[in-house]
Model the fold of this input.
Amino acid sequence: MVCAGAVVRYRWYKWRYQPTLVQMAEEFPDKYTDDYLNSMQSKIEHMQTEWLQASSTQNFLKKPSKLKHKAELERVLFVDPPASVPSVGWVPVALSETYEGKWAEQATDAGFAWRGGYDY
Done:
């Protein structure tokens, strides 16, 4: 649940099979080839492996010091993969969010068709 009371439903996908990249491969097959997507997958796995091996005190994104208005990532939106999902090469994709009470009428659904993945 996020701070505003929303419940977010998401599914874990291997990076190259997340809905956006599958759609891009369908629309732009000359660019999003298997070789290209496999290369992207390899880079993501390398990056995530490096992050997992890094010290917990290492900062990957240095906070800007000269900006008056800084954007912050909302920590409640960070999710850890469940035991059934590999820790490297997979990403969560939000499928919908629902609200209770006065926010209920604003519930949204991303409309993704299921193409495989882990649903949580």
